[in-house]
Amino acid sequence: KSKQAGKNRFQFYARDMQSDALARLQLEADLRIALERQAFSLHYQPIVEADSGELVGAEALIRWIHPERGPVSPLEFIPVAEDSGLIIGIGEWALREAARQSRQWRDGGHAALRLAVNMSGVQFREAGLPDLVGEVLAEFGIDRGGLMVEITESVLMGGSESMESRMRAIKALGIGYALDDFGTGFSSLSYLKRFPVDVVKIDRSFVAGCPDDRNDAHLVEAIINMAHSLGLQVTAEGVETAEQVAFLRELGCDFLQGYLIGKPLPAEGFEGMLEQHFLLPAAHKRPRWRNR
Ligand code: C2E
Ligand code: MG
Ligand code: MG
Ligand code: MG
């Protein structure tokens, strides 16, 4: 009898695994169609300078509305796109769309706005990536500093020499790098020196505990100081409260991003924030004598 139960359990797991694999295959097939039909869109989340509250940039975040399932999170479909190689086409689409939008906003008088595009490590395995980026920049006339690329620590970890030289070739085109979700991976400080990173983005899981959780608060302080001593700027992600804003300003964090400042919105919605321009009240400059 127990043998029978074991067998049933095995069958149960096998069936489970099978349906998992099937669901993934289905998602992959749906993604392929979505790519052909260009069924993705980008939302834009504002990034402000911490002290002034001035809108200086935005992160482009991909969105997909599945015909039957409705919105599917990029956290679910990006990994499938990476495994299947579809990320090459999806990433190219996102880059081009962000560049097109950047051109439009630049022409509309927002020349200083810096758009950040997320890129997968899989894209950096393609020898043609620097050429592609160069073509897109030229096609839309994006000048130096107009676009940034966000990559995660894991991209640097697996970083070969060819990937490093690709990164540098793209950097030479005038594109800066932000290291995304910083603190969640296993990267060491040596990566920050070796690769041409400009900005470190503190993962929102650490910002979430600030200022009350002492471990998170100390970690965030350490990351900001370390980044600054390496000549890098720092963006805090996931800023949701006024207390976090005050705390991050106190530590000298350079840029802030999060729901408190603004949620990711479709381009038309983001334009409202562009008009507003200052999305947070400026920091109170304390009289000097109080700092002594
Ligand atoms: P990410 O690059 O770290 O993007 C930040 C994520 O945090 C976004 O989730 C954003 O909506 C969310 N977020 C921002 N502020 C807050 C906040 O205050 N509170 C909370 N709880 N969440 C906040 P989203 O849009 O679901 O994207 C998830 C991830 O998917 C991104 O993380 C990025 O790794 C990936 N992704 C998005 N678009 C692309 C893309 O075009 N290409 C690639 N390769 N990956 C992408
Ligand atoms: Mg990002
Ligand atoms: Mg991030
Ligand atoms: Mg993240």
UniProtKB/TrEMBL annotation:
UniProt keyword terms in alphabetical order: Membrane, Transmembrane, Transmembrane helix
Domain EAL intervals: 24-278
The name this protein goes by in its record: EAL domain-containing protein
Organism: Aromatoleum toluvorans
Residue range from the parent sequence: 765 to 1056 of 1062
